[in-house]
Design a protein that fits this description.
The longest helix has 17 residues. The N terminus is likely disordered. By secondary structure, the chain is mainly α. It has 15 helices and no strands. Helix content is 67%, strand content 0%.
């Protein structure tokens, strides 16, 4: 419990610097909730001697991280800024227990460096401090591993799938909506087991969960077809810029006769 309190204190002490990016990471909110141009400018204007600030700046520059259609992206520049963050002590901060530095190291190793072992090492450290975004990241790493149904001796014979679900459960228990959605997908196609996790994530306006629930009310045979409920879910997702939800709304208007004048968008 002490580890969890220390992680929460870290969040409070630096949330004014990273603002909504950190809130989004902590609670797994959909990335469309963030004004990314403003966020990138915010980080650009912050203390350039802070290695964690530079780490975030570097990730924002990488084409594979965060919304690539919105921000200025340059992989070479990403690597240059990351090197500056390392020179200023990013690894030292991670090794000293800064969970945000640990998450940055793990994410960079995974997406940019393609080094699974390093990625898992840093996400695992932060996850053991009960940092929910890293708990979710550990789950995603294990879900992506090959032979996910093969017993893993490192986890007393548990499969990689079992381990992924365990870490998703931990993060979901801390209201990380992304983990709630990931956990729901692990139970697909058993909708009765998926539903509570999807609903908890949707209650936090997680766009992918809202979109999935909208689809269920149009196409699934597990609930009664309800175009109005589907529209409500699609509208909530579309308000966050979810492109497929917007397409489904148009389909509801054109093919099923719903009145676009009644839209809340």
């Amino acid at each position: 419990m002490q580890a969890l309190r220390s992680s929460q204190t870290t969040v409070v002490s630096i949330v004014s610097v990273y603002e909504r990016i950190l809130v989004a990471l902590m609670f797994g909110m959909n990335i469309e909730k963030i004004n990314w141009n403003e966020a990138q400018k915010k980080i650009q204007d912050e203390d350039q001697d802070d290695p964690v600030v530079l780490g975030f700046k570097a990730l924002l520059l990488h084409p594979s991280v965060f919304p690539s259609t919105i921000l200025h992206k340059n992989e070479a520049e990403c690597r240059t800024v990351w090197s500056q963050a390392e020179e200023l002590g990013l690894t030292e901060q991670a090794d000293d227990g800064n969970v945000f530095a640990q998450w940055l190291k793990g994410t960079y190793a995974d997406i940019v460096g393609h080094d699974f072992k390093i990625a898992l090492r840093y996400h695992w450290i932060a996850a053991n401090e009960r940092f929910p975004v890293s708990e979710n990241s550990v789950g995603e790493l294990y879900e992506r591993m090959e032979d996910s149904e093969t017993p893993n001796d490192a986890f007393d014979g548990a499969t990689n799938r079992d381990t992924a679900m365990e870490y998703y459960e931990l993060a979901a228990g801390q209201d990380h909506a992304g983990a709630q959605y990931n956990l729901a997908m692990m139970y697909d196609p058993d909708f009765e087991r998926m539903k509570p996790y999807l609903q908890r994530a949707a209650d936090q306006e997680h766009a992918e969960s809202l979109f999935y629930l909208g689809i269920v009310y149009i196409e699934s045979d597990v609930v009664d077809q309800d175009f109005e409920k589907a529209r409500t879910y699609f509208e909530r997702a579309a308000k966050q810029g979810h492109a497929k939800a917007m397409e489904k709304l148009v389909s509801l208007y054109v093919e099923h006769g719903l009145d676009p004048e009644e839209s809340t968008i």
